[in-house]
């Protein structure tokens, strides 16, 4: 992490992170809450493999996709109630099984102490997002720069979602990079006009190397090197 001290990121002032599948492996708790809803509705459980493909579009979308996975219509009138039940189940045990990905907190801590602005741009509801960040003792890294899927009238991949996050961070668009795990994150970054780095251990439906990111990493230990490359090739102003 000596890149910070060596000032090798002179053009990068801020980093925006997706949450689920990027910073935190939240899938075990999401799946537990989801299956409490599914079995309560009389449906079979969603498998871990299936669930990996359903995360990323927000909680409402998760329920719709889960219903579709078991052969139900996405317009099923029970979806709204199922969504509310899901939120209640999830809020009770939002971090019981969730874990930070390897080296993620080390990176956040080092970047924060070196004056970099950090933000969260997620399609997860803001209430749940704040609960998770608080319970995992990450809130102080991001401050108010946490924008959830229901914080605005739009969400990723709409550029406004990412623009608003960066606005709250207080950095210029041209000096900010996004880190995510999915096609939604890449599209959001492209729409907003910022470089994007993908992790290859997240919840993407498609192989990360097919999504057109500026760099791909397999651990947060590789993020500094990826940022150096982007600083030198994408952000020389």
Describe the structure in brief.
The protein has helices at 27-40, 48-52, 59-69, 79-92, 104-113, 126-135, 139-142, 159-169, 183-192, 223-233, and strands spanning 14-17, 24-25, 99-100, 117-121, 146-147, 176-180, 196-199, 215-217. The protein is of the alpha/beta class.
What do you see in this structure?
The protein is α/β, with parallel strands linked by helices. The chain has helices spanning 27-40, 48-52, 59-69, 79-92, 104-113, 126-135, 139-142, 159-169, 183-192, 223-233, and strands at residues 14-17, 24-25, 99-100, 117-121, 146-147, 176-180, 196-199, 215-217. A six-stranded parallel β-sheet has the order 5-4-1-6-7-8, with helices on both faces. Helix 8 packs across helix 9 (183-192). The model has no long low-confidence stretch (mean pLDDT 94).
The class by helix and strand makeup works out as: alpha/beta
Name the CATH class of the largest domain: Alpha Beta
Unreliable runs, pLDDT <50, ≥5 residues?
none
Percent in helix: 40-55%
The CATH topology name of the largest domain reads Rossmann fold
Number of strands: 8
Could you tell me how far the N terminus lies from the C terminus, measured between alpha carbons in angstroms? Answer: 24 Å
CATH architecture of the largest domain: 3-Layer(aba) Sandwich
Average of the residue pLDDT scores: 94
Order of strands across the main sheet = 5-4-1-6-7-8
SSE string, helix = H, strand = E? EEHHHHEHEHHEHEHEEH
Note the total helix count.
Answer: 10
CATH homologous superfamily (4th level) name of the largest domain: HAD superfamily/HAD-like
Radius of gyration: 18 Å
Sheet with most strands: 6 strands, parallel
Q: In percent terms, what proportion of residues is strand?
A: 5-15%
Multimeric organization = single chain
Number of spatially distinct domains: 2
* Shape, principal axes of CA atoms: elongated
């Amino acid at each position: 992490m000596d890149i910070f001290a060596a000032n090798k990121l002179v053009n990068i002032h801020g980093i925006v992170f997706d949450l689920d599948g990027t910073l935190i492996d939240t899938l075990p708790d999401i799946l537990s809450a989801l299956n409490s809803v599914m079995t309560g509705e009389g449906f079979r459980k969603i498998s871990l493999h299936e669930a990996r493909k359903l995360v990323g579009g927000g909680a409402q979308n998760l329920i719709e996709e889960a219903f579709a996975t078991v052969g139900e219509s996405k317009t099923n009138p029970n979806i709204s109630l199922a969504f509310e039940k899901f939120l209640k189940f999830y809020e009770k045990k939002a971090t019981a099984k969730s874990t930070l990905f390897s080296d993620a907190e080390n990176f956040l801590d080092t970047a924060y102490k070196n004056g970099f602005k950090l933000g969260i741009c997620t399609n997860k509801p803001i209430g749940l997002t704040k609960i998770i960040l608080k319970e995992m003792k990450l809130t102080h890294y991001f401050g108010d720069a946490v924008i959830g899927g229901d914080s605005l009238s739009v969400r990723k991949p709409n550029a406004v979602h990412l623009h608003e996050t960066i606005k709250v961070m207080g950095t210029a668009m041209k000096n900010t990079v996004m880190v995510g795990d999915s096609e939604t994150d890449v599209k959001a970054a492209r729409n907003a006009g910022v470089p994007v780095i993908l992790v290859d251990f997240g919840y993407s439906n498609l192989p990360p190397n097919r999504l057109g990111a500026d760099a791909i990493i397999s651990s947060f230990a590789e993020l500094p090197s990826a940022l150096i490359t982007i600083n030198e090739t994408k952000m020389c102003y």
